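Side project, low priority. Logging it here so it doesn't get lost.
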Amino acid sequence: MINATPFLWIKNAAEAIEFYKKAFGAVEQYRLTEPGGKVAHAEITIGGAKISLAGEYPDYGILGPETLGSTTVGIQLQVEDADKLFQQAIAAGAIVVNPMMDQFYGDRAGSVKDPFGHYWMIYTTIENVSPEEMQKRFLAMFET
């Protein structure tokens, strides 16, 4: 069996955990804290999905988006009410990257950037679209 779990490195992991609780309803499962207070490892769940996170360790080349200036990873949250969670995340301090709107691939989706530099795509499926139809709709966007 293989189980993939996102692992986020964050400059201030303790603050991030509190933000994720407020923005996405995360539940902290546990936290390992160094004597100085730095989060060495923590696990949260959002819905049933597990996400691990820790502070930065520059000596090992482990840096978060704030230090790097960007991230190459986004996390998708499929929820029953994307609009509600999107607004909740914004109220908690997330910045809108793409506004919430109906998408050609059948989802109502939008994306936000959290205060720690990670991107979150929030969506609700509103229409089941076959891969062939998705491709057709995708190509149609280039015809204007």
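Brief comment: The chain has a mean pLDDT of 96.
Revisit when time allows.
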